[in-house]
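Team,

Forwarding the record for the chain on the shared tracking sheet. I've put the sequence and predicted structure together so nobody has to dig through attachments.
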Amino acid sequence: MTREEVLNIITTNDYSEIDRNFNQMISLSEDNNELFNQMFKKVLFKVACLNNDREDLFKSIKFLDLSFHGLSKLPKAVWHLTHLTRLDYMRGNLKVIPKEISLLKNLKTLCSSYNLISKVPKELGLLSELESLWLNDNSISKLPKELGNLEKLKELSLDKNQLKKLPKELVQLNNLKSLRIVDNQLREIPEFIFELENLESLSLGRNRIKEIPAKISSLKKLYYLGLQGNPLTKISENVNELNLITFNISHTGIKDTRFLNDKLQKAKI
């Protein structure tokens, strides 16, 4: 099957044609051609909207992108995609992540940024294979403590929400390498963060944080620390014990940085 033939199928509503050629489509979906992959997303969207009696088509789908469709809820058929490893739903009108998300046991990446999400269900903590969670630009003010059960999580991105604090149970995220909570309402760096020994990148810009405490030195693997746009008044000299490549404290209340060692002077933005 050629890309042109797939395009012809995309332009029709004949699901029997999708059925007959689905395996070949899946094979072609591994193509690195970006334009073709954009076309294939449309096929996947049609498949996701099929009735539940077409579950035989769902078994091979590992990646589903429903971004830019403007839906206020996900199609029920999505919960039958038990082999799905990545689900993207960005720039839509989703207000709540459905608790049925827990049915996607093999999910490794969930991207649901640029929506209207105000509630994150505790069932999200049942996704034991999840490695990347992106919930930027929503209306989230509280996270469930069950997110601490995501032992394989490596990336957590929560920029542009309304978070004032984070559940202490996130201390259990021992494999977390990147944590982003830019443009929120944090007044201090959460204590549990200093116990995330594998953390490499910490982005907390544009919050309400006033101090970088001495415990920051416990993050031995940290190479990026971003606190730009915070009303900082105090930075512990222990920050000199870090091996930072980038140290962003621009647009803060800190003017005198002579206490920083030569390495951090070069890393400073």
